[in-house]
Specification:
The structure holds 2 protein chains of 2 kinds. Chain A has helices at residues 2-12, 31-37, 49-52, 58-71, 127-146, 158-175, 189-215, 239-255, 283-299, 308-313, and strands at 15-21, 26-29, 75-77, 103-112, 115-125, 179-186, 221-224, 229-235, 257-260, 263-266, 269-275, 305-307. Chain A is of the alpha+beta class. In chain A, strands 2-1-5-4-3 form a 5-stranded antiparallel β-sheet. In chain A, strands 7-8-6-11-12 form a 5-stranded mixed β-sheet, with helices on both faces. Chain A has a two-stranded antiparallel sheet with strand order 9-10. In chain A, a hairpin with a 4-residue loop joins strand 7 (221-224) and strand 8. Chain B is α+β, with helices and mostly antiparallel strands. Chain B has 6 helices and 8 strands, in the order H-E-E-H-E-E-H-H-E-E-H-E-E-H. In chain B, helix 1 packs across helix 4 and helix 1 packs across helix 6. The chains are: A alpha+beta, B alpha+beta. The A-B interface holds A 57, 59-60, 63-64, 67, 70-76, 78, 80-82, 104, 106 and B 28-29, 31-32, 96-99, 102-104, 106-107, 110-111, 114-115, 118-119, 122, 133-134, 136-139.
Chain lengths: 314, 202
Amino acid sequence: MLDELCINISNRLNTGILILDNNYNIIMWNRFLQVHANKEDNHVEGKSVFTVFPELPRRWLERKLSSVVQLKTQSFCGWEQRHHLFELSHSRPITTDSHFMAQNCTFLPVEVEGDVERICILIEDVTDVCHYQTQLNKALEELAISNRIDGLTQAFNRKHWEECLAKEFSRARRYQHDLALVMLDLDHFKLLNDTFGHQGGDMVLIETAKTIDKLLRMGDLFGRYGGEEFAVILPNTDLEGAEEVAERIRQAIAKSAINHQDRRISVTASIGVAVIDSDDSRYEDLISNADTALYQAKATGRNRVCLAKEAVEI
Amino acid sequence: MSSFDLTEDQQDCLQELINVAMGQASDQLARYLDTFVYLKVPSIEQVKSEHLFETLNQDLKATAVVSQGFFGYEGIRGEALLMYQPQDSHRLADLLGYEADELTFDEQIIDLSSILTTTFLNVFASQIDNQMSYSAPRLLSANQGTISEHLNQQSFNWDLALKVRISYQVTDYSFNCDMVLLIPEEAINNIKAVIDRILEDF
């Protein structure tokens, strides 16, 4: 009576039950497994679990099962480490894109008079959990990216860019590395906005960001500092190297003409360059040195590059 | 002294039960892992939730933590935390008898945690005529930050817990880790009842 009840319940569980003998032959399984493995009872009972499920990682699983027998203790395998052990269908075949059932497996020793004679494997369908966790992770990743990026220009936003600068600054200090900063401001941007409208202005910002981005090396960190102001962190770069990069950026911006509603917009940039020096105790000093050089470039006619040292001397 | 404090007799009895369990667990582990496993003298104390980190954190800077819940008969239940230092963990696959490419680092520490926890608690349970079941072990966080960073964002809904800390050493693999068993307030009384029964029989 109780046996019948147990069998009835085990066949209605939404959990797979698989019982093996010590040689890993299948003694019994329940309806859950029968359905999701899509195999018939008489092709399974008495057969080795590795024959019935050839997809199982045999060496690993044998070692795992040996711990169950030898230590007489439960063992586990979760979907986060292994998506699945058994290739089974699952309960969300229509509304998820998971091919196989994501599984949490528990391996239980079944002792008879002190010796482990059987191993019971419980297989839980966690396709649902896996599906939502994957979606959540994806959303978090997207959120992390949108938290760093300026929506208009796709450059780093001010906050993230400054965090990068703080890190690069302390790294350069610690290891006595070079570090250069290039800050640039588009010339007469307000006039440009008034002439071509804000959409024209936005187009210029987008295209300028693309132009700058193409000229940078891997490891350079490019951000939108303010309205029409951009900034580039150049790790391991001295003043001469940074001047070269700045000059290349200046020329590329001056050369490119942007088509907007059948009109061509030309734009130039004034650029300030500074490198880390022994007087700088904070990264903000580096910014203000580059900023001073940038205003020097503005004051001396625009569309030119000024270096921080020159700016200080003048 | 709170009403949950163990009497001296109870404390001695628990200590003795744990010592015996440690001996047997160490023996079983040595046979399974095929190397000597040393378990250092345990510390048993009660902790308040607000002091948990201080008692766990100590000198551990970067730590991986694996949690596994356990429960047995007579209302005995709790949570085991296994704590690893990354520099100790590079030969784990070897120790566990797997090929390094068969499983990820996360899986290795989860697997080892489960083995250490369940082996010890199974032997402990048999000492008190009990039998344990376990939840799936879960990696709270891989090797980054301190334990308090992993757990600090939570406010606990418990005040007091019984804390048993056991250090494992596998010298052949220069491996160390700590197992901390935490038994929540309501379960402490159940443990005390079991201990009292053993003391009476004795």
